[in-house]
Amino acid sequence: MTGKRGAPAPIYGRVALIGIGLIGSSMARAIRRGKLARHVACWTRSAATRDKARGLKICDSVHDRIVDAVGDADLVVLCAPIGANAELAAAMAPALKPGATVSDVGSVKQAVVRDVGPHVPEGVHFVPGHPVAGTEHSGPESGFAELFERRWCILTPPPGTDRDAVERLTRFWQAMGSRVETMDPAHHDRVLAITSHLPHLIAYTIVGTVTDLEDHLRREAVEDGRLVERNEVIKFSAGGFRDFTRIAASDPVMWRDVFLNNREAVLEMLGRFSEDLAALQRAIRWGEGEKLESWFIRTRDIRRGIVEAGQAGTFKATEPEKG
Ligand code: NAP
User: Fold this and answer.
1) Could you tell me if 77 and 55 are in contact, meaning their C-beta atoms sit under 8 angstroms apart?
2) Cα angle: 310, vertex 316, 318; to 5 degrees
3) For the whole model, what pTM was predicted?
4) Which residues line ligand 1 (CB under 6 A)?
5) Probe target for ligand 1 pocket from 103, 107, 135, with the most ligand atoms within 8 Å of CB
């Protein structure tokens, strides 16, 4: 479909973003850049973030009341931490217009179906989504329009969802640069538990453990005739540890909600991981070099596959992929 002077017509009339942090504000910027909606409205919980959003001029309107943001919207996207979804869905439900689509960007999908689904009124479509893209930064100032480019967006529409609504949302994410795949929410949660949630848990663990060990690794040295204490952890953090600290700097509330809402899948994957870790521990103990080497060759090949698939990094070199 084309609009004035042959330019593609906007995919939606009005889009309402509920939450305007990293993901919401990146969507606002990408929608504006691609002219994907005629109007971008947003609501966010705090007056301070609303002021920031107004100052950044990334939305056409910033609302103090959630019902004012979603009223007359064709697409409403929940962009707050997963734990807030049930309350937000209940608050906005009375203002949703028939024929509108409700979606979200949460990193766990079964919990969204459980928490939001019951509040979606008859005649409103419900198509949960998850852009597998992000950084460790939060807030509206950290978003950027290119965040979703060449990244997957996974949609998990419940059985029987209106096909046109799914197709329209698919086009919308594609127009923001994403590749879109549809899957069952339970499958999504298991896949993401191993590819995203477990790596974050490992990062949170290792950074905590190293910090606890820091005192044992302090060393006193004489510099310019003075006795000084050297912190070797900070000094040598150029190794693998530095990458872990970046991941472990991710938003604590968002990740708390991810683990609380994807408990079973994360615990299952953690069990398998612990077994493999024990196998490597044993190989080190018994000096089984061949075993270690063949394991590392296999993982290097996996990394090469990720690079070849174009999933190795984002557009901003300083903001590697997460989600
Ligand atoms: P963010 O930058 O921290 O922004 C969070 C937004 O949600 C803010 O507008 C905040 O409002 C609002 N909010 C926070 N707690 C709330 C509550 N209890 N009730 C109502 N609103 C609340 O977060 P984000 O990184 O954009 O993440 C948002 C969602 O995207 C999460 O569900 C997450 O799972 C998903 N996601 C994140 C990433 C990532 O890498 N960050 C990737 C993919 C998907 P105020 O600032 O006004 O308090």
Assistant:
1) no
2) 110
3) 0.90
4) 19-24, 44-46, 49, 79-82, 84, 88, 105-107, 131, 134-135, 138-139, 251, 254, 322-323
5) 107
pLDDT in tens, 14-59: 999 999 999 999 999 999 999 999 999 999 999 999 999 999 999 9
Residue 106 Cα to ligand 1 midpoint, Å, equals: 9
Q: Cα separation of 83 and 81, whole Å?
A: 6
Mutational pocket test of ligand 1: of 18, 104, 254, 259, the residue with most ligand atoms within 8 Å of the beta carbon: 254
| Domain 11-183 top-level CATH class | alpha beta
Distance from the alpha carbon of residue 287 to the mean position of ligand 1, in angstroms:
46
- Residue recorded with tokens 């766990």: 108
pLDDT-derived band at 2, boundaries 50, 70, 90: low
- Contact criterion met (CB below 8 Å) for 129 and 104: yes
For the beta carbon of residue 23, count every other beta carbon within 10 angstroms.
29
CATH placement of domain 188-308: 1.10.3660.10
Structure confidence at residue 1 (pLDDT): 54
7 CA to middle of ligand 1, Å? 33
Domain ranges of the chain: 11-183, 188-308
Q: Which residue blocks in the chain are alpha helix, DSSP H?
A: 22-34, 47-56, 66-70, 85-92, 110-116, 163-175, 185-192, 198-217, 232-235, 240-247, 252-261, 263-285, 289-308
Q: Residues near 223 by Cβ (< 8 Å), separated by ≥ 6?
A: none
Instruction: Determine the residue type at 270.
Output: L
Which atom of ligand 1 is nearest to 88's Cα?
20
Q: Strand pairing partners for 222?
A: 227
Measure the CA–CA gap between 100 and 162, rounded to whole angstroms. Answer: 11
Residue 289 C-alpha to ligand 1 middle, in angstroms? 45
> Among 70, 105, 151, 322, which is best to mutate for testing ligand 1, by the most ligand atoms less than 8 A from CB?
105
